[in-house]
Amino acid sequence: MRKLIFPYRIRAEQQDLIDFVSSHIDKPLCINATTGFGKTPCILSALLPFRKRIIWAVRTGNESDRPIEELKAINNFFGLSYRGKKDMCLLKEGLDYDTASYFCKKKMKDCAFNKNLSDFSFSPEEPLLYSELLKIAKKEKICPYYFQRKLLPYASVIGLSYNYILSTAGYSLRSSFSFPDSFLVVDEAHNLEQAAINLSSVSLRKGGVEHAIDEIEGMDDEDGEAALKALLEVMERIEGESRVDMEGFLNALNLRGLASRFMEYGEKIRAEKLEQNLAPRSSLYHLGSFLQSVEEKASAEGVVMLASDESFEIYDMRARELLSELWDQFLGCVFCSGTLEPVEGFADTIGLRDYEGKSFYMPFKKENVKGYIIEGLSTEGEALSKTMANRYVEAVSWFLNQGKKSALFCSSYRIMGDLLDAGLNADNIFIEEHSMSGAEAKVMLESFREAERGCLVASAQGRFAEGIDLPQALDSVFIAGIPFERATLKTTLYIKYYMNLYGAKQGRYYAYTVPAIRRVSQAMGRALRGIDDKAFIVCGDERYAKPHIFSLLPYYFRAGARVIRYPPDAGNS
Regarding the domain with residue range 12-195+320-360, which homologous superfamily does it belong to in the CATH classification? Predict the structure, then answer.
């Protein structure tokens, strides 16, 4: 029996998770465990005794510290949060990923920070967060990016973003350690499918074409310039949404075969900008890369080209096909989230063939979670009527009297706007803006945490509905409507693609219903982070009572949920 290295007082259900991982790691594992369960220390405790490297993949680079923070509590193992060149370069800040990689490649030989690293020795003694690693590098005047690369062979745990697993960015890691000899853990794995789609899709905006025309004017290429001007004319006439035939697009605008030429011009422009100490960006290079994708994917099933808002997008929906090729590259894989149910559906959509799946539940006391579904409320339809908006405002006013710190998650920013226009208000209200920057969101969230009373009003499809921790800062949640994707052409094509894969009923369920209710479950979880937490949760839409939707809601809500009629009153609660 392996020695238990769990760093906290362990609960029975946590021991069950550790045993499950330890006993079944020869197969891919799908673990559904509630927010606040302690998934991270449990999985680390199960895998570390195997003495194999653990690659812990998270949604964004900012989240890569999570497993390393838990590793610090476990102790006796070294690990680090791994970040890309755009976050690590001390010579040039503010570059995107591609530009930062290009800049580093061209400047490496002359970089003083890189030269200093060759004479620097370091013996890692404890896990390093991104900020700690960067601090050491700045103090020692060494390159942070290649410093972390130098430490990789010593690391038992590496926290990094999905990009290093899902894209070619991961090739840089393979020179430092072996994927086939490493365990892969994918955290918040319900995001995997969308992450794969985002990485394999690419867009071209009108502004980019305008800049490309400016760049090509100095290249003495009349045919290329004429093709770009014809493309711009087409983009200026785009109205609404439409699907574009990729072969026809290339032929009609005489763009076929121009991709490599534009990229060659773009490479020359990038080199010139680098010499001038400017950010080495080129719109021609990006346009050439876009055209290359059009040529490569023109006949692929599951890839479409869309025109909308003066832009073109290559929308690659083949997540299952793209992801299924990855998992056999690792010694073992663990996929975990608080919203993986139905587990069999999740496994199917990421291309898992032979796996073990299990759900683990926090033993919340039934009396600690009060759940309600309100009949007579619904956001269904193209627009929210004034009467229905007023009903929601009245229901939310009742809801706000049930707790001190509340969150109202609306099914969309449009619905949120409708409710605010209808007079929604509260004492000490905190409103998420659609265009809010990350820094602004952080400041507002801290203000909400520190307030004695207040109401956070946000979109269930926004940044505050998933991933934020509000310990002892939230005691009630109201979900206004169901956060289905807006009925755009893209959504329609995505659902149709899934219906072709899984059949009409199951395809729509996987593509449309399941993602929406996962958003709801994530939003509900903001109020329940610990076993003794109490929460008052209201689903403000009568459709939540439908069996195919109700069955997807979190177990702690389903356990004692009541359906009440509008208008809610003190007697209902």
Answer: P-loop containing nucleotide triphosphate hydrolases (3.40.50.300)
